[in-house]
Amino acid sequence: MPWYTDWFGTRYYKLLYRHRNEEDAKPWVDAILHRTALGRGHRVLDLACGRGRHAHWFNEAGLQVTGVDISEESIEEARRAVPGATFLVHDIRTPVPSSEFDLAVCLFTSIGYFDDSADDQRVLASAASALKAGGAFVLDLMNPHHVR
To answer: 82 is in which domain, residue-wise?
Structure first.
């Protein structure tokens, strides 16, 4: 079993990212909503949603949120934290059963962990297949200019 299938539910992961919470996620969601001009009633797919910290703010803004993550523990936490959203245990390399989203997001450098780079392409294809015509995809990645 690959390391990433259970790492994101461990106490070490929670300790490492204990400072990452809903308040930390709000500026990201605000910026995305401002740039996309999406709001109440639009549908958003949160790929690798973790505990739902971004989904929380999309939900607060009135969007219909579906969050997917490979970690069962993270999905359980997200369901408790954001009861108005839908959360599914799902591998982001495969298309989400329900499509026609106005927006798909993959935030907090949640891509690039796979042993085979073709899996990263599968994630991008999965996101694209979930979007309705004219939908937007936001992908957040670390880059050398940011971390220096």
So the answer is: 4-147
